[in-house]
Specification:
- The complex is a heterodimer of chains A (77) and B (650).
- Chain A has 77 residues and is of the alpha+beta class.
- Helices cover 22% and strands 21% of the residues of chain A.
- Chain A has a two-stranded antiparallel sheet.
- The C terminus of chain A is likely disordered.
- In chain B, the strands form eleven sheets. In chain B, strands 27, 32, 34, 35, 36 and 37 form a six-stranded mixed sheet that branches. A five-stranded mixed sheet of chain B has the order 28-29-33-31-30. Chain B has a four-stranded parallel sheet with strand order 3-4-10-5, sandwiched between helices.
- The longest helix of chain B is centred in the first third of the chain and has 19 residues.
- The relative contact order of chain B is 0.08.
- The mean pLDDT of chain B is 93.
- In chain B, 29% of the residues lie in helices and 33% in strands.
- In chain B, helix 1 packs parallel to helix 2, helix 10 crosses helix 11 and helix 12 packs antiparallel against helix 13.
- Chain B has four domains: 178 residues, P-loop containing nucleotide triphosphate hydrolases (Rossmann fold, 3-Layer(aba) Sandwich), CATH 3.40.50.300; 69 residues, Elongation Factor G (Translational Gtpase), domain 3 (Alpha-Beta Plaits); 133 residues, Ribosomal Protein S5, domain 2 (2-Layer Sandwich), CATH 3.30.230.10; 82 residues, 2-Layer Sandwich (Alpha-Beta Plaits).
- Chain B is α+β, with helices and mostly antiparallel strands and 650 residues long.
- Classes of the chains: A alpha+beta (77), B alpha+beta (650).
- Chains A and B meet through strand 1, helix 1 and helix 2 of A and strand 1, strand 2, helix 1, strand 3 and helix 2 of B.
- Strand 1 of chain A pairs parallel with strand 3 of chain B.
């Protein structure tokens, strides 16, 4: 891979509340640039970001806390 | 749950993207990512506006003064609302929020963005991807011009020359605008707003283009600060410095250290000095990461992010210096843990394995801490929240195959007495062989500084023992007529000490007692050390029970900071937790309650606080003093302990 000099390297952190779309945006940024040929989705658990086994277990999902906002239960991932 | 580094390449630029978790349990991952990024992209869900998680994280973006982009996502959603999300963002993040793009239509029909820097409309095909560049339609021109002018003013504000130019020309060209926006981002005065539907692949290309051309590189950013206060600029010609911001312990792979090249360049095979651990580390293999995929590279230049394997003595927050560089870069400051629990292991043989596993878990996430507490004889695990705690449990159970449970941490109570009492005890064992005999008469009194010597006793000798757990044991030798030899006094004290280590009420440490031994008996043949130790211990125990014993509990000073509208709930929660409210204060829109809360209630308070305040409260607690436990609680604790004692006896 090409070596980039200091002026051509940008470091960004995607931050935000759960489900704001950080992982999907990351996937899209790589796809648009042709780094990956297919976009994974958070639902199918095949994104580059979510590769840790624990994120895909039923237990992990049960542990997820939830908040009540405007009378609705919002589960967070 | 984990921050994941990825990379992309967009029009001659490399963009390292760190995808971070959204829950405050994993705040450590977010903090280290913010620490090494040069721009923070804050995503807002257009359905929900500024959510709780975002508020908590923004504190850190603000603290590190990271240039910030606001990306309003999910504009394709039925319930999306660009305008209200923008208003919330302005209210929360302040006047720096500056519209750079706005959507022509919001909801399922979202397919076009007006870009105010380029003054162009981007229209996307149904499947997303590369947009068509079109002139701004007539119907949008008025609005676009108005917002463009606001953007120009905002850009000009950050530079005097641009301001002059703007006054001269009444406008700025694209390059001048970029220049002004970049300066504004670096001053934390401009947070440009972008529009996205990440799901439909709309808007990310323009965002990347902006990151390429406007967002600062590491070389543009202020210098990093060393521990001694000196500065390290991101200079590609300076001696190389790597800063490790994250550690992963991967199954089958081992320890993976993620670092940012803070200066110079790193080439595979380079040696570095870690001053903190006083070791030399070799970068054997050099990678960049896309999630779990490792891409081997030969070299990485200043400002880049990479990873290596097998750095045995290097941890998160360590600096690796090449020859010619010295000093450690200021470490990442992680928040204190918020919740604690005790870990119980089912199979005692797993003890060592457990400690190794916890060592790895802490290496990966320094916001998780653990320590063995000798006093309460429990292994205490501290984390940022419930989920965080359960994940540690899951990892220990599933990845390390250990059976463990959580239980409430014991409370380090103290025991003392409230009035004088006397007791005597005769220890006698004279059946066969050499016998045992010792008898002790003692008086015990609550001790305080300046307590005068008893008038009715003749004090021959005074010993003051400062107890390692606080308070004192004062021992008076008041024996007359040689009824107990002086040589047995240390044994009597030893017996008393043993009982003070495991107090008669609940097995907790005893403090602030004066013991006067004033009479007794010994036997010419059978008296020995063990006899007087037992007699001393038993007499002390009896006297203690008669001296109106009082259990003391640790009280913490607790400072809770939370938004005003949840303060009533926080207050009533504190009151149900036996707390005394000491005062209230306000700080930047937040209210602060100061209270004194018993440790026994503090864990429950911390756990409850999250749901009461939806995670928006910050709590600081520090040990203040020991105070008496209320009667009914003391009664219950004493009874519980008696049961355990009886059980152990049988």
């Amino acid at each position: 891979m090409k070596t980039y000099d200091e002026k051509h390297i940008k470091n960004v952190a995607l931050i935000g509340a759960a489900k704001s779309g950080k992982t999907t945006l990351a996937e899209t940024m790589l796809f648009e640039a042709g780094i990956i040929s297919r976009r994974g989705t958070v639902e199918e658990k095949n994104t580059l970001s979510d590769y840790h086994e624990i994120e895909h277990t039923a237990e992990a999902r049960c542990m997820q806390p939830h908040y009540i906002r405007n009378g609705r239960i919002i589960r967070l991932t | 749950m984990y921050a994941t580094p990825l990379h992309t390449e967009w029009k001659d630029y490399k963009i390292n993207v760190i995808d971070t978790p959204g829950l405050d349990d994993f705040i450590g991952e977010v903090i280290s990512s913010i620490r090494v990024c040069d721009t923070a992209v804050i995503l807002l869900n257009a359905q929900n506006g500024v959510e709780i998680g975002t508020e908590i994280i923004f504190d850190y973006v603000d603290k590190y003064q990271r240039p910030t982009i606001i990306a309003i996502n999910q504009l394709d959603h039925e319930k999306a609302n660009f305008q209200s999300t923008l208003e919330e963002a302005k209210n929360f993040f302040g006047p720096a929020v500056t519209v750079m793009q706005y959507p022509v239509e919001v909801g399922p029909g979202f397919n076009a963005i007006i870009d105010l820097l380029k003054m162009t409309m981007y229209k996307f095909p149904k499947t997303g991807g590369k947009p068509e560049k079109l002139p701004i339609p007539e119907s949008e021109l008025e609005n676009a011009n108005k917002l463009h002018n606001e953007l120009v003013e905002k850009a000009a504000e950050n530079d005097e020359k641009l301001m002059e130019l703007y006054f001269e020309k009444g406008n700025l060209d694209e390059d001048e605008l970029r220049d002004g926006i970049k300066k504004g981002m670096m001053n934390h005065q401009v947070f440009p707003v972008f529009c996205l539907s990440a799901k439909n692949d709309m808007g990310s290309g323009r965002l990347m283009g902006f990151i390429d051309n406007v967002a600062p590189s590491a070389v543009d950013m202020p210098a990093e600060i060393l521990e001694d206060g000196s500065e390290v600029k991101c200079d590609p010609k300076a001696p190389t410095r790597l800063f490790v911001f994250k550690t992963l312990v991967e199954p089958h792979l081992g320890k993976l250290s993620l670092f940012k090249v803070m200066a110079g360049e790193v080439v595979q095979g380079n040696d570095f000095q870690n001053e903190k651990t006083d070791t030399t580390e070799r970068i054997g293999q050099l990678f960049i990461l896309d999630g779990k995929n490792r891409i081997q590279v030969d070299r990485l230049k200043a400002g880049d992010i990479g990873a290596t394997l097998k750095l045995k003595n290097t941890n998160t927050s360590d600096t690796l210096n090449a020859k010619g560089a010295r000093g450690n870069i200021d470490e990442i400051h992680f928040p204190e843990p918020k919740l604690r629990t005790a870990i119980v292991i089912k199979n005692k043989n797993d003890d060592e394995k457990l400690m190794l596993a916890l060592h790895d878990i802490h290496a990966e996430d320094q916001t998780i801490r653990y320590r063995y507490d000798k006093e309460i004889r429990q292994l205490i695990l501290s984390t940022q929240g419930d989920l965080h705690m359960n994940i540690v449990k899951w990892r220990l159970q599933h990845l390390h195959k250990m059976e463990i449970d959580f239980e409430a941490p014991r409370i380090p109570y103290r025991e003392t007495i409230q009035k004088p009492a006397e007791a005597n005890y005769k220890h006698k064992k004279q059946s066969g062989g050499s016998g045992q005999f010792g008898e002790v008469y003692m008086r015990i009194e609550p001790y305080f500084e300046g307590l005068p010597n008893p008038k009715d006793l003749n004090v021959k000798n005074t010993e003051v023992h400062d107890l390692p757990w606080g308070g004192k044991l004062v021992f008076l030798n008041c024996i007359s007529g040689g009824v107990i030899d002086n040589r047995f006094m240390p044994s009597i004290i030893k017996g008393i000490m043993e009982k003070m280590l495991e107090g008669p009420l609940t097995g907790s440490y005893v403090r602030d007692v004066r013991v006067a031994v004033y009479d007794g008996k010994m036997h010419a043949v059978d008296s020995n050390d063990i006899s007087f130790k037992i007699a001393g211990m038993m007499a002390f125990k009896e006297a203690f029970h008669a001296a109106q014993p009082q259990l003391l509990e640790p009280i913490y000073e607790v400072e809770t900071e939370a938004p005003e509208h949840v303060m009533g709930d926080v207050m009533s929660e504190l009151q149900t937790r036996r707390s005394v409210i000491m005062g209230m204060d306000s700080r930047g829109g937040y209210q602060i309650i100061k209270a004194r809360t018993p440790l026994a209630e503090l864990d429950k308070f911390n756990a409850a606080l999250r749901s009461i305040t939806q995670g928006r409260a910050k709590v600081k607690s520090i040990f203040a003093e020991y105070a008496p436990v209320p009667n009914e609680i003391q009664k219950k604790l004493t009874e519980d302990y008696r049961k355990i004692e009886v059980d152990n006896h049988h």
